[in-house]
Amino acid sequence: MKEQFVAYIRALQDTITSRLEVIDGKAKFEEDLWNRPEGGGGRTRVIENGAVFEKGGVNISEVHGKLPESMQQYFGVKDANFFACGLSLVLHPINPMAPTVHANWRYFEMYNQEGEIVDQWFGGGQDLTPYYLFEEDATHFHQTCKNACDKHNETFYPKYKARCDEYFYNAHREEARGLGGLFFDYCKVSEEMSMQDWFNFVTEVGNSFLDAYCPIIEKRMNLPFTDAQQTWQEIRRGRYVEFNLVHDKGTLFGLKTNGRIESILMSLPPKVQWVYDHHPEKDSAEEKLLSVLKNPKNWV
To answer: Among candidates 133, 249, 128, 132, which has minimal Cα distance to 181?
Structure first.
């Protein structure tokens, strides 16, 4: 299974970066190959200062070795070894009318001292973080997610949409990070799903990403915007940073397993503001976005 999924994420990285370079039309992804001293490594690809994307990364990693003490406590195991691989991406467009997007798809195995697999699971998802609310964009993104889920199980979309709303939530702000999408984790063998079934589902979602995001970015990337709207974008990016540094499990796992810090923090945007006690004007477009972030909607 791990060889099968590694081959998939390597090919998907190529597909996604090629398409995004065409959309940007100016910048290219710079590739950085890195090794992890304890075992494994990755292929980081970053795009910066483009015509469309201010910063973005589409990264794959394959790491293995002894599970660190802190993670053994987290999983409730002793003397375990692990293998983890995945693709993680974040894209921050220049235009505040265009949304930030995040996605990742990952696979994990844990072994006993004899090298036998004692646990394995898939996880992942994709979610949209706009700065200005275009309801048709939210509907398109969620409908694409639902279509991918429904090919495998019609209960998946409502379940994983709800988990996404719960997970990407800044509890200290009492607001969602964005408009959600899908979030699933610990997808293990069950009576209904084999690991191959989970592989088929996760890759279906991964293959849907460009269909979910590209029509939105192509529609919004050239819209006019003001300095005030860009300031609002940078304030909202601050909330994005807060979530990634305070709550995100992927960031925690990377830091706890001595992951590559540049790749782990690739998700952070280059221009961010924290304005003291900021509140948008009443009945403004900015307030409209906030109202949805405080009360997640069903978009399809």
So the answer is: 128
- More confident call, 261 vs 158: 158
> Closest by alpha carbon to 76, among 34, 38, 119, 42?
119
- Please state, in angstroms and rounded to a whole number, the distance separating the CA atoms of residues 102 and 208: 13
Give the Cα separation of 98 and 20 in Å (integer): 14
Show Cβ contacts of residue 6 under 8 Å, excluding neighbours closer than 6 positions.
62, 85
At 32, the pLDDT band (50, 70, 90 cuts) reads very high
Q: How far apart are CA 287 and CA 300, in angstroms?
A: 22
CA distances to 147, 172, 194 from 177, rounded to whole Å, are 23, 11, 32
At 105, the amino acid letter reads: W
Q: Is 102 a catalytic residue?
A: yes
Distance of CA 7 to the CA centre of its chain: 20
**Identity of the amino acid at 21:** E
Global pTM value: 0.94
| Catalytic-role residue among 64, 92, 102, 142 | 102
- Return d(Cα 268, Cα 23) in angstroms, integer: 21
**Phi–psi pair at 81, nearest 5 degrees:** -110, 160
Asked whether residue 116 carries a pLDDT value surpassing 80, the answer given is yes
